[in-house]
């Protein structure tokens, strides 16, 4: 009887030790995020941005009131005559992966103001941003699921991309969602709203969850602007 109960005791204490070890192995340190805003608002120099929804690992934030109707319309107007078929990758090739048209906007008062605000939201110096990249999708056009970071080694990884903000410039009647297949997340474009996400984590699996795309537009057209941000100064 004595032997049996001490055996049980040893067994139980080994089990609880194993549980402790298991807990240590599975409890990961929370990864650092640059998007360190607290509360439900971000106060930039010239506008109060609404934090509508957030998730962690990777950090994703859905934001409202990022730009005014007038700013969105002006960005569309400035891009209309400058659009070219979008290209992908470091070799800048035309591909079925991305069938939209796009352009990088040169600096003027409106673009500089919006860029500065986006940098404040993203908590980075404006010089780390690649500038405002305007996208236009007509019905049937899309940007298939992709990563914004570069997987190849070399110059580009030297100053890698770390975060993205997609600002919607118009309401899309149907389709055109930004979707994240690994997170079962889909964001419908509404004028002035934005989605932010980041992908510089030490755990590669967390970065891989940021796989995302722009779903085909079904009815209407989609206008958006992307700001990609680099780890170091870019411009
Ligand atoms: O159009 C979208 O919703 C996504 C755009 C995008 O992924 C990008 O510009 O990198
Ligand atoms: Fe992207």
From TrEMBL:
Keyword Metal-binding included in the entry's annotation: yes
Cofactor or coenzyme needed: L-ascorbate
One GO MF term: iron ion binding
Keywords: Dioxygenase, Iron, Metal-binding, Oxidoreductase, Vitamin C
Organism field: Halobacillus karajensis
Fe2OG dioxygenase domain mapped to chain residues: 128-231
PROSITE patterns: FE2OG_OXY
Signal peptide: none
UniProt-recorded name of the protein: 2OG-Fe(II) oxygenase superfamily protein
Top-level taxon in the UniProt lineage: Bacteria
The keyword Protein biosynthesis appears for this protein: no
